[in-house]
């Protein structure tokens, strides 16, 4: 069990829930990656679309690890970050040595993504099982539904050309609306407890002491 104040645990869980809502937009960006590469870089770089998709998830995972490390540090458990980052670094190193000679840049991207995902899993385990900061099952159900809707939209109307930007924007809008209806976004915006600031010292008392 955690020895942190209940309010800290609740706010930490709220941060994790908001982070989970990045999954639907990231899924949309992954599905639209081929069109995005064509728009920004042209047909000559079409082969880079798989790299963009993989590195997108790796980047989100790295961000999640950074946020988790900040949460652990705020809870006075900064040394625990090593338990999440250390194994991930080892997995990345093994992946680079094994996959880069065989698959080149794609192997490096997969190694980075897998190592980052491991870091996220270990970070969430530390936050959940040690500090009781978790993502609720209700949020996971809502996020899964929004992600499935993003996949369905891409299946019905493939994100090609300019529609790729509209598709990503629509997915982001639907994600925000779902988070509002679910209550996660509303909770984080309107139920943040303000910590009263310490009163400023009296200058007269300072000069007399």
Q: What does this entry look like structurally?
A:
The structure is a single chain. The protein has helices spanning 6-20, 23-31, 33-41, 49-74, 81-103, 105-131, 137-156, 163-182, 184-190, 203-208. Residues 192-198 and 205-209 have low confidence and may be disordered. α1 (6-20) crosses α9, α2 runs parallel beside α7 and α4 packs parallel to α6. It contains ten helices and no strands. With 209 residues, the protein is mainly α.
Spell out the blueprint of helices and strands:
Layout: H1 6-20, H2 23-31, H3 33-41, H4 49-74, H5 81-103, H6 105-131, H7 137-156, H8 163-182, H9 184-190, H10 203-208
Helix pairs in contact: 1-9, 2-4, 2-7, 2-8, 3-4, 4-6, 5-6, 7-8
Brief summary of the model shown:
This protein has helices spanning 6-20, 23-31, 33-41, 49-74, 81-103, 105-131, 137-156, 163-182, 184-190, 203-208.
As residue ranges, the low-confidence spans are 192-198, 205-209
Averaged pLDDT: 86
Tally the helices: 10
Binned, the helix content reads over 70%
Biggest sheet character? none
Terminal Cα separation, in Å? 44 Å
CA-atom Rg in angstroms: 21 Å
Q: What are the salient characteristics of this protein?
A:
209 residues; disordered C terminus; mainly alpha
